[in-house]
Design brief:
- The chain is about 35% helix and about 25% strand.
- It has three helices and six strands; from the N terminus they run βββββααβα.
- It has a three-stranded antiparallel sheet with strand order 1-2-3, with no helix packed on it. It has a three-stranded mixed sheet with strand order 5-4-6.
- Strand 2 and strand 3 form a beta hairpin.
- Helix 2 crosses helix 3.
- The longest helix has 17 residues.
- The N and C termini lie far apart (about 40 Å).
Amino acid sequence: MKCPKCHHNHSRVIDSRQSEDALSIRRRRECENCGYRFTTFEKVEKIPLLVIKKDESREEFSREKLLRGLIRSAEKRPVTSEQMENTVDTVERSVRELGKAEVTSAQIGEFMMGVSKLR
């Protein structure tokens, strides 16, 4: 891992633990050259997920697009940003658990409706 301060290529791991979301690993590192300490995060690389739209076109799944739509729909409702983030996390997890490379926009909508009924 390259040091952000001196750009030396070797560092050692001081501490490792799961991040708060349990989806990544947080590592504290120390540069072997200058002694600078910094934090890195490791995430599992996810396979690209394609969404099949109503017109049969395909686009890459976008968590940000899902969140933007949720924010727009909840503008005048007492919903916190944390609740919206959790909803998007749950929907993305559900879609990825299907184990398919492609999912329809209707399926994503069903997951969104199912999660919002629980809250």
